[in-house]
Design a protein that fits this description.
The protein is mainly alpha-helical and 118 residues long. It is built from five helices and no strands. The longest helix is centred in the middle third of the chain and has 29 residues.
Length: 118
């Protein structure tokens, strides 16, 4: 009972956060691996190629990181659409509201319908 109420209705938001964390991870990959050169990795290779002014290799590495990041983002988005089809039915304007408003189901003042002028 608890699992169904707390997780299944929020799984689409968990997929959104997963996509954001993956994007941040891909952005930080080269910086962190460049700082910790002893472990090696793509960031170390990228910085070495940049140091020796091999711009074609730098561009190829950056393009590979971009393509892998986009592929991962697309895959997570497809999983979200497959596992959470209800997310497309939810109104989009609720995402900027504070959690307090969503729990009490009260509407934000700017989202209330205008009074009719009859």
């Amino acid at each position: 009972m608890w699992f169904g109420k707390s997780f299944l209705g929020q799984a689409d938001k968990a997929f959104d956060v997963l996509r954001q964390n993956a994007a941040i991870g891909w952005m930080m990959l080269t910086m962190v691996e460049g700082i910790v050169r002893s472990e090696g990795g793509v960031g170390t290779i990228l910085l070495d190629q940049n140091h020796h002014f091999r711009l074609a290799a730098v561009f190829a590495i950056q393009l590979t990181i971009l393509m892998l990041g986009l592929l991962q983002d697309y895959g997570i988005g497809m999983m979200k659409n497959l596992l959470c089809p209800y997310a497309a039915l939810a109104p989009k304007y609720h995402h900027h509201l504070p959690i307090r408003c969503l729990r009490t189901r009260s509407t934000h003042a700017s989202l209330r319908p205008l009074p009719s002028s009859r």
